[in-house]
Amino acid sequence: MVFQEAFEWYIAVYLFLAGVGAGSIVAAVLADMYDREKYISFIKSASVIGMPLVMIGIFFLYIDLGQGMWKPWLLILLFVNPTSAISWGTGILTLFTIFSMLYAIYNLGLARFFRFMGGWLPRLLDNMGSSKWIKWMLILTGICTAGYTAVLLGVLRAIPFWHQTSLPILFIISATSTGISGAMIVRELAFKTEDSMHKIETTHFYLIVLEILLLFGMFLIAMQGVPEMQYSAKSLLSGKFAVEFWAVLVFLGLLVPAVVFGLGESGRMHVSGGKLIFFEALVLLGGYFLRFLIVHAGVYTQKFTDYIQ
Fold this sequence. Notes:
Blueprint: E1 2-3, H1 9-35, H2 40-65, H3 67-70, H4 85-107, H5 120-130, H6 132-154, H7 166-191, H8 198-222, H9 227-237, H10 242-265, H11 273-296, E2 299-300
Helix pairs in contact: 1-2, 1-6, 1-7, 1-11, 2-4, 2-7, 4-5, 4-6, 6-7, 7-8, 7-11, 8-10, 9-10, 10-11
């Protein structure tokens, strides 16, 4: 068995940042559609981090592309192959970045800075950012952005552990959960109001529970798979990455927040201020290690080398 070395830490950073950015915007748009006035502080907070985190994540992806950093004109080739998953992802990321930028300009009141170009441009930007079609496109491209972070791994057939249909679903759930955490931290630091975030907190709790169940199910499937898939799973459960998996991802990143938010949901505990930031940060820590560990646990054997180009 050979652990893959092609995807390094910066791919895990891209997967994480793109997931948080996309998940925060999807959560914000859903809150916007439900009750914009009540959840405006959360919507503004998500708008602050959504597009920037995706853009920073794309930067780390460019690092992996090698020549894309030093010969940026070659990046145009990412758009010209309709049969390539990389081309699909490039198109999705581009659309999401544009739509989320328009949405942020509207939510944060940034259109006024374009008044030097005449009154028509601020009105156009606000009308586009507030339109229903932008919101629906953000939900679609946001979910696709979060899911694509798993597809990017899954198309590499040489790594059986990455080739699971449950992985995109797990990454979408994790992206939404970490996106809520990121927005809640920004809200606590910069946009806090007295409005209750109870429904968002409830949704967040159930997302973490669902993530735990999906992770458990993914390992059940992996342990019944080909030897390479089993080896990857065992490297996380009891092997090379066991300490990080159990201590950081499972305990700190999932179980502790689930218990705390569950107690909050039942009314037995009220978490706010610095404590809320701490537990939301644990969710973000778990979200990063989920991707870091899945990336680094990928293994292949000689019989799979024909899939490596």
